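Retro notes - structure team

What went well: the batch runner handled both jobs without manual restarts.
What didn't: labels got mixed up in the shared folder, which is why I'm recording both outputs here explicitly, each with its sequence directly above its tokens.

Job 1
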Amino acid sequence: MIYDVSHRTTFEYSQSVSISHHLLHLSPRLCPNQICHRHSLMIEPPPTIIKESTDYFGNPTTYLTIETPHSELSIVARSNVEITAPNYPDPATTSAWDRIPTELRVAKDRDLLDIYQFAFDSPFTQSGNGIAAYGAVSFPPGRPVLEGAVDLMNRIHREFKYEGGVTDVYTPVDKVLADKRGVCQDFAHLQISCLRSMGIPARYVSGYLQTLPPEGQERMIGADASHAWLSVWVPDSGWVDLDPTNDLLPGNQHITVAWGRDYGDVSPINGLVLGGGHHEIEVSVDVAAVN
């Protein structure tokens, strides 16, 4: 599948901003089963400095500085992305989960050491004993790692309510577990925390998901939204994506923008602003399949 993606973000400030610096994660990354054919940015007011780079995790980034005084900032990212559905291993034939922590602890191979860094707590996935207990239900001794991860995903989808406005990016995963509600980034952080509590590497993935309308209705422009899911490390198979919000292994409708330890590593727009007072943010995302 090929998609045209438009991601518009507008900041409105109660006072003038004299200068601002921003770090963007808005360009879909090159990764298995995905190619970004085109990417462009429209920024108003135009930046004085703009620089393309990659971050520690290999995600495309854009650094920009705006020196024009402004009370509104508009950033529109447009991308053309091609997705091929991945071939997933049979969950029941994957390695036993309890072999993974030991193998990683003694690893000397650089690639395995890079994977091992995703087995530890990060700022948005720090958790208590409740998280470990919840995750352990899906991982009895010797269970295949992907089978356990899929079971955990099923449980989160079944037992938690998707509800916007009850959490924010700073909501601890322990509270999400206690309240049994949240949004996609909460469920991704929760499952990552559970997996890491078992010593299983897991990483946070940000991107887009095409939202299909009910049968007989037209797709609403701007109804699509930024999405979040996770990847779990499966020996001999690599990273396997899991979407607990929708209870599925992503196919060709998930577009990956960036991955990291948690949301803090891949926030779409970060910034430092001089002035501005209070501000409001409006975000609109459109994901359209190209015929």
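Job 2
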Amino acid sequence: MSQPDFTVDIFQNEFLPAGGQDVSSVITVTSGEVVPEAAEEVAGAEIIIIDCSGSMGSPRTKIAEARAATAAAVDVIRDGVAFAVIAGNTGAQPVFPRDGSLVIASPSTRHAAQQAVAGLRPGGGTAIGQWLRLAQQMFRAHPATLRHAILLTDGKNQHENPAQLDEAIRVCEGEFGCDCRGVGTDWEVSELRTVSKTLLGTVDIVPDPAGLAADFAAMIQNAMGKQVADVALRVWTPQHAAVRFVKQVAPAVDDLTGRRTSSGAQAGDYPTGAWGPGESRDYHVGIEVNPAGVGQEMLAARVSLVAASPSGTEVLGQGLVRAIWTDDEALSTKINPRVAHYTGQAELAEAIQDGLEARKQGDEETATARLGRAVALAHRSGNEDTAKLLAKVVDIVDVETGTVRLKKKVEDVDEMALDTRSTKTVRVKKEHA
């Protein structure tokens, strides 16, 4: 199957003042359509990891809804895709198939998997690292390159130490993508966020177990739409320039700067995971250049989308970031609307997380200031979903200035929903595109 072409659009103010060094740009990447040769489908592999610890039995509807959700997810796995189900507690056990392999989806194997899942019973503790390691071993034994997992838990990782979980996540990095869901309010947002960020997936809260089935089916359907695996954002800079940061800023904020791998002289690759047709994401790229004279122009960076191919590495799309020095203050001080928007969205996510942590530590002054800043940023950027979540944690006095009061009583589910979804962003409004 041929790889899709990617459109790479660069949004920036290329004009710098005399002596200016910082070049900031937003890279909008959109994947094209793939036409399967001879109607060939994209083969992939799916593993569903279900928490079966003792806490999943309280209330009893929790494990029942988890079983129903797994059955619903299995139901939408496409024929020809390899899949398996893992039960997690203090250890990890293959539920279907029992031998720890992956089987090809068909009406008969989907039915058999649903029957096996119906027998899941809660018991034992929670050791998420063990669950991830088993998934990694099972994926490793299968040739599929598009590898995706769902991980569901209702509790904290109490039966292994943080170092064991960190090591398991490290081992799985680059092996498969993982969407994480926490059901109820007894799990730890930071634990699942670390898993999902490292494994290029999503994290969210499912407050009511009754919502699991629809969520699981949607995640599998999204995974079934992926057509190209392991795409990287490659940033090349000339010798007199260097990368300051690379961040995904839409659909969610994710700092990729520390995940750079060298791909040649003055070039580095940043992982973006798997892509489906027509998918669009935004990246904020900061470059530092050596100053040049007024009127001079230089190429600050070349940004490419690359993926592995039988012949090596294939370039799927490319764009150029420029720098021009000027003594025209009107030109050099103009801020590109997309750069301004996403700078604010990244600050919004940081303000929420800082504010919630300060609130947890009993520092009401800092919590009020940071969450107030978040309210103002959410309002200015039109991030209505985040604004609604903030309103459940603070009383808003003045939305424009971000003047707020901390609510005396906040439901755990509201605080966790705000924390979990703090990194979700909104795209630039069309009039600013």
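One thing worth noting from job 2: The mean pLDDT is 95.
We'll revisit the folder naming next retro.
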